Task: inverse folding
C-alpha cells in the first residue's frame, strides 16, 4: 500500500509518497513540526489527520 503525505503552508502545497506507514507518519510529523498543515491518505482514500497518525500505525500492525 502507498501513502501520500499532503502538506500545505503559506499558499504552498506538497504531496510526498511513501510505501511504509512508519515512513509516512515520520515525514508527516516532521512537516507538522515545521508548521505545515498535514494529513496522510492511503491508497484506498482513507484520510488520517495528525491525531489519527497513531491509529494508522496500529492498523498497519494489525494487517501484518
Result:
Amino acid at each position: 500500500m502507498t501513502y501520500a503525505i499532503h502538506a500545505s503552508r503559506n499558499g504552498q502545497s506538497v504531496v510526498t509518497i511513501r510505501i511504509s506507514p512508519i515512513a509516512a507518519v515520520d515525514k508527516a510529523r516532521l512537516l507538522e513540526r515545521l508548521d505545515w498543515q498535514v494529513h496522510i491518505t492511503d491508497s484506498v482514500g482513507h484520510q488520517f489527520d495528525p491525531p489519527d497518525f497513531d491509529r494508522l500505525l496500529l492498523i498497519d500492525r494489525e494487517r501484518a
